[in-house]
Every structure is written in C-alpha cells, then in structure tokens.
Design a protein that fits this description.
The protein is α/β, with parallel strands linked by helices and 416 residues long. The chain is 48% helix and 7% strand. It contains 18 helices and five strands.
C-alpha cells in the first residue's frame, strides 16, 4: 500500500499492473480524496505525473477487476452521499452509457460500419490519410493536442477533460471524422469501452444530445492544465452540430434477467467482467472455468492495451482456480475450432457467463455461444445487480438516471 499522499505517477504502459489487487489498492488509496477534494480538483489535467486529483481506477472498473458496487461501497464507508456526489456520479456515468447503448445496440452497429467505410475511404485519399496520421502521431503543431496524442499512445490513458478537448479539436479544428477519432481512442485506451467511448464522441459532435456540442477553448485549456498549455492558438471558434441522416432508434426493452441454474456449470469469463468470484452463482457448482481470449483481434487494440487485457485474463484464471477449486482452460474465440473445443470442454454442462454489454467482446463471443445453443447447449448470461438496477433508467438523458442514484443505491443496500 502506498503510504504517501500522492497517487503513483503514470508515465508508461507498465505503470498499470493488470490485477485485481492493484485496482483494490488504488481504490483504498483514493477513498479519502473521493469527497469534496475530488469535486474541487477533478477537472484539472496537470499532466501524466500528477494524477492525485483523480482515482485512475477506470481501467480496473472497465474490466470489472474492481466492480462499481465495490467502489461506491468503499466511498460511502468514508463519505456521505452528498459529500461524494460528484465522484459517485462519475462512476454512474459509465453505467449510464452502457445502459443507454444496451437499449440501442444499432447505434454501435452503425458506428462500426461507419468506421470501416471511413477507413477504406481514407486509404484511397492521400490527403485525408496524411491528416489522420499527423493527428494520431502528435504532429499537428497544436501543442496541447500533440501532447495528449503522445500521452495516449504511451500510457493508454488520458484525463477525462483532456479527452473532451482532444475530441473537440479533432472534430472542429482538424476537421476529421469523429468516428475515426473514437476508433483511435478505443484502440489505445486501457479503459476504452464501446459505450463510454462512442457515446462521448457522439456527444462532443452534437449527435448524442441533438444540437449540443463541446467546443475546446484556449482559455479553458490554459486554466485547467495549470498553464501547461498557455499558447493553444488556432483552435476552432465554432462547433456546429453534426447531422445524422438516420433517425435515432427507439430504446428497446432489456431482455429479461436470466435465471441461475442450480447445478454443475461451466463458467465462462470474458474481458468485460473479470470478477467472477463476486457473481451471484447461487447454489451452482463450478465444474470448469473457461477464459475466452482473442476478443481483441477485430478492433486491433494497441500493444499495451492487448497486453493489459491478456495479463488480466491470466490473473483471473489463476484466481478462479483458487476460488472455485476447479480446472481452468482457455479458448481463443477467433480459432476455427473454438466452438468444437468449447463443446468438448463443457461436456453438456449449462454455461454461465456475466452478461456482455454491447461492444467488441460481445460481437466476438456471441457467435460462439449461438453455435453452442444450436448444438443443443444452454447459455445463461447473468446480469449483475448493479446493471439490473441502473440500466432501466438509462433510456433518456443522464440526468434522468442521476435523479435515481439515491433510491437505486438504497435498493442495492449501499445507502441507508
């Protein structure tokens, strides 16, 4: 446990140990600062070596090495709900985005198709490709933007405020497609997920909240970077909202919550939820646990992101062997024989997996599960209590969910 008051500096990819113990240590280290100190200091991006004002928990929460429930429970053990309101709201923003996209999966499918189309187009347009490469490599001549591009690639992380500035400059100053900026983030962020990333970029360009955009201003950048970037000149002075020819799909109802079989089961683990020990498995007995690899093949994640996920999956497999006392196997979902191998390993047992939210992992894994069901197998996707309680409130804007936070936390037993 760190005994000093400063969060360890994050300057390279190996500053992010991919373990649950590391995430829990960071949580314990930050809890005291999660109240009014966080509210006052959270918007400042003081650089990669000065992160004490934020929790740097997001890669661990994104993969549920540490769950939202654990984070909020720890914070409310030290602070009142009103005292830690801003921090808890930030935890709930990620939940909101996931729930919103769960209700509208077509938004993700359309984004994926647009990235493919724009990537193909850029391949045939030398001018656009050159502008994209200069932006991604931090060679635009805009000091702050270039610094953030380099920091993202080197560390897999950006302060939330910097992400907004970066997206705004990408869209309005550099006039680059927002979808390719979102794709750049998704490939390089250790905490990148389909919902938070895609929908945040949609918000900056005026699609998520129709007509509402975000404009990066030099004065705001100067103030909230502690004068690190005092000469942010040449930025766009207007942020016209993007238009969308396709109407936003209506929110679909969530699928019913699956029942937990009370028998011997095969437990599957994906990189969307690496905390199987805390799943409510009832009286089920885990006979075999299977780690699903290869879900990062299609998006083409950066090396440090792929390394983090692979190490987190390895550590999860080791924890499962100890916790459940069962054999642990691994399957590469991209392998041609993945479905056959899964059938062999599970031997007809019901399969249980934590519910996969809309995104690349579900896209990669769902065909494998569908093939098993067609072959006569059964699959149960377990929705965690946290998601089950919050997601129904994520059909509209965030403030609709925000108003429900106190009552939902009471429902979850986290607040008296």
């Amino acid at each position: 446990m760190q005994s000093n008051s400063e969060t360890p500096p994050l300057q390279a990819s190996d500053d992010w140990p991919a373990s649950r113990s590391e995430g829990m240590e960071r949580l314990a280290h930050f809890v005291a600062r999660a109240g009014r100190t966080y509210a006052a200091e959270r918007n400042f991006d003081l650089g990669p070596d000065r992160r004490a004002n934020v929790s740097v928990l997001s890669p661990y929460v994104r993969h549920r090495l540490v769950t939202e429930d654990e984070v909020v429970r720890a914070v409310l053990g030290t602070h009142s709900l009103s005292g830690a309101e801003k921090f808890i709201q930030e935890v709930c923003w990620r939940t909101y985005w996931k729930g919103w996209l769960q209700h509208r999966p077509g938004v993700w499918d359309r984004y994926v198709a647009e990235v493919a189309q724009l990537t193909a187009f850029a391949g045939s347009d030398r001018h656009l490709m050159d502008r994209l490469e200069r932006a991604k490599s931090g060679a635009t001549g805009i000091e702050c933007f270039d610094a953030w591009a380099n920091e993202l690639v080197a560390t897999g992380y950006l302060h939330n405020h910097a992400r907004m500035w970066f997206a705004s400059i990408w869209i309005y100053t550099l006039n680059l497609p927002w979808q390719l900026g979102a794709d750049f983030f998704l490939r390089h962020l250790l905490d990148g997920d389909a919902a938070s990333n895609t929908l945040s970029w949609r918000w900056v360009c005026g699609l998520q909240t129709p007509g509402k955009t975000y404009l990066a201003r030099a004065s705001n950048i100067q103030e909230y970077t502690g004068n690190r970037f005092a000469q942010a000149t040449g930025l766009a002075t207007a942020a016209p909202p993007a238009s969308d020819a396709v109407p936003l799909e209506r929110a679909k109802p969530l699928a019913p919550r699956g029942l937990q079989p009370e028998c011997e089961i095969a437990l599957l683990v994906t990189d969307d939820d690496l905390n199987p020990e805390s799943l409510d498995l009832g009286r089920a007995e885990v006979t075999i646990a299977i780690v699903l690899r290869g879900t990062d093949a299609a998006p083409g994640y950066a090396a440090n992101v792929a390394t983090f996920r692979a190490a987190a999956l390895d550590a999860c497999g080791q924890r499962m062997a100890r916790h459940f006392g069962c054999p642990v196997a691994a399957i590469d979902v991209s392998a041609a024989d993945a479905a056959h191998r899964l059938t062999q390993l599970t031997r007809g047992l019901p399969i249980v997996v934590a519910q996969m939210p809309v995104g690349p992992t579900r896209t990669a894994v769902q065909p494998l599960l569908d093939a098993l069901v067609i072959g006569g197998g059964t699959v149960h996707q377990l929705r965690r209590d946290w998601d089950h309680a919050f997601w129904p409130h994520a059909t509209k804007g965030f403030f609709h969910l925000k108003d429900k936070i106190p009552s939902v936390l009471r429902e979850l037993g986290l607040q008296a």
